[in-house]
Specification:
The complex is a heterodimer of chains A (189) and B (424).
Chain A: H1 2-15, H2 23-26, H3 28-34, H4 53-64, H5 71-77, H6 82-94, H7 107-119, H8 122-126, H9 144-155, H10 165-171, H11 178-187
Helix pairs in contact in A: 1-5, 4-5, 4-6, 7-11, 9-10, 9-11
Chain B: H1 10-28, H2 58-61, E1 89-95, E2 101-106, E3 112-116, E4 122-128, E5 131-138, E6 146-150, E7 153-157, E8 162-165, E9 179-182, E10 197-198, E11 204-208, E12 223-227, E13 235-239, E14 247-249, E15 256-260, E16 272-278, E17 283-284, E18 290-291, E19 295-296, E20 314-318, E21 322-327, E22 341-345, E23 358-364, E24 370-377, E25 381-382, E26 385-386, E27 390-395, E28 401-405, E29 410-416
Parallel strand pairs in B: 13-17
Antiparallel strand pairs in B: 1-29, 2-3, 3-4, 4-5, 6-7, 7-8, 8-9, 10-11, 11-12, 12-13, 14-15, 15-16, 16-20, 18-19, 21-22, 22-23, 23-24, 25-26, 27-28, 28-29
The chains are: A mainly alpha (189), B mainly beta (424).
């Protein structure tokens, strides 16, 4: 089912005269899953708003080359040229970043998550406000379900990072700790 | 490629349990919403964390591993004009457009094979009828960093297996898939990518790095193995190796020399990367207990003595990431380079003022220890940022030197004498 939607979206987005279309028009296909204003409302699908352009470029490249495997994204990226990859990643970075939740979040879970994030120095690469830099992604206020899913996939290495960094980090994070970490990062204010 | 055994990490498990324990204690405290800024002191890092030793200060917060751009640079965007070589030498672009170009190997018929680490490909730079072109000869591989060539066969090292393609140079347009010869290797990501080479004993040498920055590990890690060219008869050749990504054999003594990367986060100035020499099989070079021959590790070195390990014959600078190395056995360069070692230093990340990002030449004393280290190919580092990063060096038959650059996905050629177009 997914496949046909994707094929249709990919067609709409990419195949007819890419030149004539603005990036805003081409990105409509992406918004269907990733949310229109940078914030995703789709289960397990990351928000893209305010993402670091170099990180987004790496991920789009990895999807195109099938180095990162998620079939709908592999299909979306397949017809992209190098310039397309650059255009989309630069555009993604200009979308508004996801806003922090208005409510503070469950204090006990926040405290556990914060202690874990500090203990594992998640802020050392992702920045103290988790906004990321260069190839290190923004994770602040990312969807909780996606965070938990992708951290678990780094841990069992079913998501291959561009390099070994996150696999190395996740070696010392226990499976049971991922839930609290994801909760904290998603609710970070 | 999904199942990974993290079995030998009982220590880490203990760390995780400790973490869980302290956390539940924290959770029982009257829970106030955590305010940024008023954060309590962080728990100690779990043992084995890649960040062990990292201080909690602003300078350290600026440092993280540097990732190269994924797309190779267009030939006209390469930093060629910025590169410097000693007087009398020339540098030119040999080939470009190879994303993440890493280790180099030379075929009998002049084909240059190029591995990669962050993509899935092995490339061939083909010289035919005076024209040079780049082909992808294998793809869908997992971190195929290592390449070696012997008697018509190309050997490829992925993260956890070694494979080969026979008669590769006769089949460059339609090469068969590589066949696996050895896969009894751990699957750790950290220091899992491999440099490989074939020694004068006609054996294939395969390193297995430590599975982290500074970790205790089982008997399958932290070593260099050697095996027959069909993958049989594997044995451990050198121990106490943290992460070697380059080796070669002294043409006079036939002893193996290898570079080894020192640990992160100990300090800005030490430990330095090592240039080591193996004088007999089974020697232990100290990691993770002793670094650079004279530093007992702060965490893991208690009760250990550097005297119990083989000291390096040369020091390559702190965090410089000394990778590929080759003895200069050609005759094109001036006499002083004969049997000297060219070393590609990928360049530091774990250092405020970046260091390395160049090719240096190490000249040896009569006793085989390092006498001097001089810059040879520089200019990749500009305003504390990389415009390129050398990974491997390799001689062509005419005595010129190739240098790979994974930042730009290119290979350069350094020659001596009147500039002329490469031909071999």
């Amino acid at each position: 089912m997914h496949k046909t939607i994707i094929a249709a979206l990919a067609l709409a987005a990419l195949s007819f005269s890419a030149d004539a279309e603005t990036i805003q028009e081409r990105a409509v296909a992406c918004f269907a899953c990733h949310g229109e204003h940078g914030t995703s409302e789709t289960e397990n699908t990351p928000s893209l708003g305010g993402q670091q352009a170099p990180y987004a470029l790496i991920q789009l490249f990895m999807f195109r080359e099938k180095l990162r495997v998620f079939e709908p994204m592999n299909e979306m990226a397949k017809p992209m040229t190098d310039d397309d990859l650059r255009t989309f990643s630069d555009f993604i970075a200009t979308l508004p970043k996801p806003t922090p939740p208005t409510e503070a979040g469950d204090p006990a879970r926040m405290a556990r998550g914060q202690a874990l994030a500090q203990q594992n120095r998640c802020n050392s690469c992702h920045n103290t406000d988790f906004s990321g830099k260069d190839n290190v992604p923004r994770i602040a206020n990312q969807r909780e379900d996606y965070l938990a899913k992708t951290l678990a996939e780094y841990k069992d290495n079913s998501r291959h990072g561009y390099d070994a960094t996150m696999a190395d980090v996740m070696q010392t994070v226990a499976k049971e700790q991922i839930g609290d970490l994801a909760y904290y990062v998603a609710h970070f204010r | 490629m999904k199942k990974h055994s993290f079995a030998p990490r009982s220590l880490l498990l203990a760390g995780a349990m400790l973490g869980a324990f302290t956390l539940s204690a924290a959770a029982q405290q009257p829970a106030a919403a955590p305010a940024a800024g008023a954060a309590p002191a962080a728990q100690p890092l779990p043992p084995g964390s890649p960040l062990i030793g990292r201080p909690d200060n602003e300078a350290a917060a600026k440092l993280a591993p540097v990732a190269p751009p994924p797309l190779p640079s267009a030939p006209d965007k390469l930093p060629l004009a910025k590169l410097k070589v000693p007087a009398g030498f020339n540098v030119e672009v040999y080939a470009a457009g190879m994303a993440n170009a890493r280790s180099l190997a030379l075929g009998d018929k002049g084909t240059v094979f190029v591995g990669s680490r962050l993509v899935d490909k092995v490339y061939a730079i083909v010289n035919k009828d005076g024209k040079r072109s780049v082909k992808v000869i294998a793809s869908g591989l997992y971190r195929p960093n290592g390449v070696a060539f012997k008697d018509g066969t190309l050997y490829i090292a992925e993260l956890s297996k070694v494979s080969k393609i026979d008669k590769i140079e006769d089949n460059l347009d339609n090469p068969p898939k590589p066949t696996v010869i050895y896969d009894k290797l751990p699957k750790d990501e950290a220091h899992g990518w491999k440099f490989i080479a074939i020694g004068p004993d006609n054996k294939l040498y395969v390193p297995v790095g430590q599975p982290g920055n500074n970790v205790l590990h089982d008997a399958d890690h932290g070593q260099i193995r050697r095996m027959n060219l069909d993958g049989s008869g594997a044995e451990v050749y050198a121990l106490g190796v943290r992460n070697s990504v380059g080796f070669d054999w002294n043409p006079e003594t036939k002893q193996m020399y290898f570079t080894d990367n020192g640990r992160d986060w100990l300090s800005e100035t030490v430990p330095e990367d090592e240039l080591n020499r193996v004088t007999k099989a089974g020697e232990d070079f100290g990691a993770p207990f002793c670094y650079q021959g004279n530093i007992i590790d702060q965490e893991l070195g208690w009760g250990k003595n550097c005297k119990d390990y083989t000291a390096p014959v040369g020091l390559m600078g702190p965090h410089t990431a000394s990778l590929g190395m080759r003895f200069y056995t050609g005759s094109q360069f001036p006499k002083g380079y004969k049997n000297a070692i060219f070393v590609a230093r990928h360049g530091s990340w774990n250092k405020s003022q970046k260091q390395g990002g160049d090719v240096v030449v190490v000249k040896l004393n009569k006793d085989g220890t390092a006498k001097s280290m001089e810059p040879f190919l520089t200019g990749f580092l500009e305003d504390n940022k990389y415009v390129g990063r050398p990974v491997d060096v390799m001689l062509l038959k005419d005595g010129s030197l190739l240098v790979s650059d994974d930042w730009n996905g290119a290979v350069y050629r350094v020659s001596y004498g009147k500039p002329k177009v490469a031909n071999q």
